[in-house]
Amino acid sequence: MPAMPHMKVKPTIGPMLTLRSLGAAIATLSVGSYAAIVTGVATNIIVARYLGAGGYGRLALLLMVSQVLLTLASAWTLPGLIRFGAQEHALRGTVAASLRSRTVILAPCLILAVLALWAGRAPIAAYVDVPEEGLLVVSVHLLAAAFAQTIGGALQAAGRMPLYGASLFAEKAAALVAILALATLAGPLDAPGVLGGMALAAVTIGGAGLTLIWRAGLLRDAAPESRRLRELWRFSLPQLGGSWAGIFGSQWIDFVIIRQFLTLPQLGLYALAFQIAGTVQQLPVVASTVLLPWLSAAAARGDDREVRSLLGRPARLALVAFATGTGLLLTFADPIVPLIFGETFAEAIVPLSVLLVASCVAAVFHMINPALTARGIVWPVTLAVVAAVATNVAFDLLLIPQHGITGAALATLAAYLVSTGIITIAGHVKLQAPVAGYALFILPVIAPFAATTLLSGTFGAIASLTLMLALAAVLAVAAGAARRADTFAPTNR
pTM score > 0.90 for this model? Predict the structure, then answer.
């Protein structure tokens, strides 16, 4: 299913929030996010070349263990920190009580997670193919990631979006520097060493963020508030099931099933393909996050014209542009991936092509989802997540034994199609928005996928580019011509 951003507090739309200040915050967050994406790509290139396919698969499994434990122990209380921290900051200018209350809930959960990891160290170490001592690094990474995540949540709650955007980039940059330093000082890197570098970066940037929060006076008046603790607990507890269920809709379930049927190097190939496609998909994910405050403001004003305008021509042109850019990457993936990541990753090209198509399907999801959320229509998203999880697991079990990592990519594509189909129907029915034809505007990525699958070499690339550019031009003209006033009569029926 499409990657879902962390739940964020809907901003208060009032006289203190000007369009200029909102735009500046959005721009800063976007710049920080995209800079983090670029830095993350550079880090992946270096790591892939250091570790090879087998080592990259081992790193993917270590990250999987850490991230699953982070989701179980920490992620479900993060929305509460942001929500109540924003309220506290609006009323008192601090986030201290919310941060303290969340820490009271988080600390024992993290302790239990570390104890569970260490109790199961023998089978887990065998599963991820590292010595048992390597799981100490997983524990450190888990705690470091939870710390950095908490500081990021506090920055969001306090409205420090420029600092939050900068922290996203700084953590990726620090991880890159740490990994290069370890490789230089400690010799050849292994997967636990790379994870250790990531943990060091998370602690460093989290510590810097905590210092800035303290100096800004956001931690003053930190008297215990039992009422805030109860409110946070009541709010967070219902998030538990959805947060945990999301594990089964992520790439981690693909990794688990691949590990069951295939080799560690094959898992490494799929992990790299998923990482590249996930990086591409961050563009619509960030766009969705950026659009939500704007659409929420329009909904609060009851201004349907702005929403209708966005979901019409601009949305279609954005989808065409994204699909065309993704199609270019797909067309030249054959020579580019081995050149950048090494010949050992050449077999990742076929699943990568499938996942790039899936990313364009997900872009449709991320275009419609903020419009639904801004109107308070959230049940279709829940239905889409559940349906996508079931589809992904079922198709993984069906396709991976027969088709290997390409089967895992096809399962992900099927899950994205299901979730996007549900969201599109909801947008058409609940919002009566002009979204039914969105699928046509991702055809510029379908054409190169078909061309490169059926044809090879220079002829395949020429056919791919010709079809893709022709479709993009036709669809751009069609999007520009669609200026009629689409009916937009939101309903919560």
Answer: no
pLDDT of residue 63: 93
Q: With bands split at pLDDT 50, 70 and 90, how would you rate the model's confidence at 14? A: very low
- Classify the C-alpha dihedral 339-342-346-352 as positive or negative: negative
CA atoms of 163 and 9, how far apart (whole Å): 17
Pair of tokens at residue 277: 């496609």
Which whole number is the average pLDDT over 299-318? 72
463: its two tokens: 């056919």
**Average confidence (pLDDT) over 270-275:** 91
| pLDDT band at residue 5 under the 50/70/90 scheme | very low
Three-state SS string across the chain, please? Answer: CCCCCCCCCCCCCCCCCCHHHHHHHHHHHHHHHHHHHHHHHHHHHHHHHHHHHHHHHHHHHHHHHHHHHHHHHCHHHHHHHHHHHHHHHHHHCCCHHHHHHHHHHHHHHHHHHHHHHHHCHHHHHHHHCCCCCHHHHHHHHHHHHHHHHHHHHHHHHCCCHHHHHHHHHHHHHHHHHHHHHHHHHHCCCCHHHHHHHHHHHHHHHHHHHHHHHHHCCCCCCCCCCHHHHHHHHHHHCCHHHHHHHHHHHCHHHHHHHHHHHCCHHHHHHHHHHHHHHHHHHHHHHHHHHHHHHHHHHHHHHCCHHHHHHHHCHHHHHHHHHHHHHHHHHHHCHHHHHHHHHCHHHHHHHHHHHHHHHHHHHHHHHHHHHHHHHHCCCCHHHHHHHHHHHHHHHHHHHHHHHHHHHHHHHHHHHHHHHHHHHHHHHHHHHHCCCCCCCHHHHHHHHHHHHHHHHHCCHHHHHHHHHHHHHHHHHHHHHHHHHCCCCCCCCCCCC
pLDDT at 26: 56
Contact (CB, 8 A) for 65 and 241: no
pLDDT at residue 221 greater than cutoff 80? no
- The confidence band for 15, taking pLDDT boundaries of 50, 70 and 90, is very low
| pLDDT for residue 179 | 92
Task: Measure Cα distances from 14 to 17, 88, 294, 297, 372 in Å.
Answer: 6, 17, 13, 9, 21
Measure the CA–CA gap between 34 and 388, rounded to whole angstroms. 27
Cα dist from 341 to 46, 268, 313, 334, 457, whole Å: 8, 12, 38, 12, 20
